[in-house]
Design a protein that fits this description.
By secondary structure, the protein is of the alpha/beta class. The chain contains 15 helices and 13 strands. The longest helix is centred in the first third of the chain and has 15 residues.
């Protein structure tokens, strides 16, 4: 779909708007559309988008809120996979729009359906494990002596991969409920079964380690490399080779430098960070966890945070009694989240008000049905 010019008014006139005028027009349309419109904003969005969001949260919370909404138009200020999930969970009468269709996710792009299907077929063939798709009740716990391969996909993945997981007795997870999801998956895999976790290796590894699974019981899958069956036989978790380019920037040297300058500093990081960063931090958790951690820290605290910079700056502004800083002073905002600009939001809202289907995200019916199964399982699991 081709984007219209972000400064194009309903009548087609080209506009040259100041930032103040942009926000005024957005607010005016929101007021006119009223309950027919819901704007969802991810924590990683810039402040000029967050100020217009009706609801703010991480991918788990926003997925839940989207499923509960009564609004006929949902505008998701996030990235493509989030808007897809909102469309899957919403009712047929609701329309989901993404202000900028180019806003994707580099991690999600590291695993596509063809690669995952090839991986799955090879793992099933080499391990001899049962595909839950062939069980009478896909989501039932494994029986004594039964060993299955259960797929788990991170929320940061395409609708096609969520559908694959739904078809093969698996589940979606977010960083908020990854541990609960892994427990669920292992219960269905059985004592001798395995979990295939994609696309983020670091979330999968850190979650497994926190559950007491040693790293030698995990193997890294790379579609460009041949499978080592000896390592596979010993593994409990098969980790896809993907990662988040933002969270990969954080390292232990940054933590050491902070603690040298601020001996009492606290450090909290996202589980998409590498293992050694998680091990060196005082706490690890989702974006919602990080928000609570900062809020509950004692007044006067210095807190180093390992996550996206827009969120860190907002936390610092929200807690003037504390010093909240990003572990990496040179880290850039998530480049794809940053594609959502107020001019694109205004453009979509103008087109919605004029009766257009503006940048609508529509997941094919069959894909949506299978993905809905996996997402519903995710929403039923809390840590």
């Amino acid at each position: 779909m081709t984007l219209s010019l972000p400064m194009c008014d309903i009548d087609g006139q080209t506009l040259d708007l100041s930032e103040e005028e942009l926000h005024q027009r957005i607010d005016a349309i929101k007021k006119r559309l009223g309950k027919d419109l819901l704007i969802l904003g991810h924590h990683y969005q810039r402040d000029s988008i967050v100020q217009h969001a009706d609801l703010l949260g991480d991918s788990f919370l926003l997925s839940k809120l989207a499923s509960e909404s009564e609004a006929s138009n949902i505008v998701f200020c996030g990235v493509h996979f989030m808007a897809e999930s909102a469309d899957i969970l919403s009712r047929e009468s609701q329309r989901v729009s993404l202000p900028n269709l180019r806003a994707g996710c580099s991690m999600a792009d590291m695993a596509n359906l063809e690669q995952v299907e090839d991986c799955w077929e090879e793992l099933i063939a080499e391990s001899g494990l049962v595909d839950p798709k062939n069980r009478i009740d896909q989501s039932a716990p494994a029986k004594d002596g039964e060993a299955c391969l259960v797929p788990v996909t991170y929320m940061n993945s395409s609708a096609e991969l969520k559908a694959f997981v739904g078809e093969h007795g698996g589940v979606v997870c977010t960083s908020s409920n990854a541990a609960g999801v892994m427990d669920w998956a292992f219960e269905r895999a059985g004592a001798e079964g395995k979990v295939l976790f994609f696309p983020d290796q670091h979330l999968g590894r850190n979650t497994g380690l926190a559950m007491g699974i040693p790293e030698e019981k995990m193997m890294l899958w790379n579609p460009s490399e041949s499978l080592d069956t000896e390592i596979l036989n010993e593994a409990r978790i098969i980790l896809w080779h993907g990662y988040c380019s933002v969270h990969r920037r954080f390292n232990t040297s940054q933590i050491e430098e902070l603690r040298e300058s601020e001996p009492d500093a606290l450090v909290v990081v996202h589980p998409e960070c590498r293992r050694e960063v998680v091990d060196a931090a005082d706490a690890v958790g989702s974006t919602e966890f990080i928000r609570r951690y900062v809020a509950e820290a004692p007044s006067g605290s210095t807190i180093g945070v390992g996550t996206e910079i827009n969120m860190v700056k907002r936390l610092d502004a929200d807690h003037p009694d504390k010093k909240v800083q990003c572990l990496d002073p040179l880290v850039c905002p998530c480049s794809t989240m940053y594609m959502i600009h107020p001019s694109y939001l205004l453009d979509v809202l103008q087109r919605i008000e004029s009766g257009e289907e503006a940048n609508r995200i529509v997941v094919p019916v069959e894909t949506a049905a299978s993905a809905h199964i996996a997402l519903s399982r995710m929403l039923s699991i809390i840590n």
